[in-house]
Write a structure and sequence with these properties.
eight-stranded mixed β-sheet
Length: 355
């Protein structure tokens, strides 16, 4: 049996509906991000049922998968484009996040050739150090970008927080983005109606009613699928947190020492494991490894089970204190972090089961 990822579409739909209702109440459009699901059309359909208008994707191949399975746009390309893929992006996507003048120029050229309108959101780096023009020079660069656009419509600004530097969204950096938008409008005499300032990590500002008025678009994935907010290190109480459950079979049960015997170096992934001497422990080896998911990010549904370590194909779990009896051939189940879900969804060795 392959490891199985159980996907509860009803819980994803419920989370998306709750998210849609919360954001709509505050005048914020929800862009539901499907990149962690490998552009899964079954999931995209329930997002649409929940009221979501725009599907956000980071890979053009995933957009093509959605379209080939009957899911229609509008689609937003989240990852700033490679020049080599802009032709496909312009053909299939309705919104594109950009951060380079050369890219804007190329998109404008292709839009003119294809007689197609595409909306652009220029990304601003307000401190997290991932994509976007640095906030201190953002106005100047985005004004230049606006001069390049005719068929392509530069319709707003955006930012990303939490994904690289772990910088938390705040009233200050959201106001910074709004001020940049206001200055661009003043200089260009044009309207930039979209301020795409939020992701899962910014939900806390909405919940606490601290989000500055004018930020009107959130791009959300993690909270919809897992009910968590890893950047703020919290579970979101009003969302379902078990829409995805990973199951793997036990292939060995042995009682062994908790510390290796002999001189140790690095493991197969170049890591230096640290072991705590707890004496002899009952260990289950699962038919699951680093190739399938991120084992260290798995959360056992069996209380008192502890994931110890993993290699490419094996995950070792300490089950000494687990209340139920586990035998070879039984299965164990886990909740996942965002990183663990991402790898499981993209791994062909993990079977996807919809419930």
């Amino acid at each position: 049996m392959r490891p199985r990822l159980y996907i509860d579409l009803s819980k994803i739909r419920a989370n998306a509906q709750r998210m849609f209702e919360l954001l709509s109440k505050h005048g914020i459009e929800l862009v539901a991000v499907t990149k962690v699901t490998l552009g899964d059309p079954n999931i995209a359909r329930v997002l649409r049922e929940a009221g979501v208008r725009i599907i956000g994707e980071s890979r053009i191949q995933n957009v093509e998968r959605l379209i080939s399975n009957g899911v229609t746009g509008p689609f937003m390309m989240l990852r700033i484009p490679q020049l080599s893929e802009i032709d496909r992006i312009v053909s299939l996507c309705d919104y594109v996040l950009v951060s380079e003048l050369d890219v804007v120029e190329k998109i404008e050229q292709l839009c003119r050739e294809k007689r197609r309108r595409v909306k652009l959101i220029y990304m601003v780096d307000v401190g997290d150090l991932r994509e976007g023009v640095w906030y201190e020079t953002a106005v100047e660069e985005i004004v230049e970008a606006a001069k390049l656009c005719d068929w392509a419509e530069l319709c707003g600004v955006g930012t990303n927080l939490g994904c690289y530097g772990g910088v938390l969204p705040s009233e200050e950096n959201m106001r910074m983005l709004l001020n940049i938008r206001d200055n661009i409008e003043r200089l260009t005499k044009k309207s930039f109606p979209i301020v795409s300032g939020g992701n899962t990590s910014a939900l806390k500002l909405v919940e606490e009613e601290r989000l500055p008025q004018g930020v009107n678009q959130f791009r959300v994935g993690e909270a919809i699928y897992l009910g968590t907010d890893v950047t703020n290190n919290r579970e979101i109480s009003w969302l379902e947190r078990d829409a995805f459950i990973l199951e793997a079979e036990v292939i060995e049960l042995k009682t062994k020492p908790s510390v290796p015997v002999g001189e140790t170096g690095f493991d197969a992934f170049g890591r230096k494991p640290n072991f705590v001497d707890k004496g002899w422990r009952l260990r289950a080896i699962l038919a699951l490894g680093e190739q399938d998911t991120v084992p260290s990010h798995l959360k056992p549904l069996d209380e008192k089970a502890v994931v110890i370590h993993a290699s490419s194909d094996h995950t070792i779990v300490d089950i000494s204190d687990v209340d139920r009896s586990i035998r070879v051939g039984d299965t164990m189940r886990f909740r996942l972090s965002y990183a663990a879900l991402l790898r499981a969804m993209t791994c062909p060795h993990v079977e996807k089961v919809y419930v």
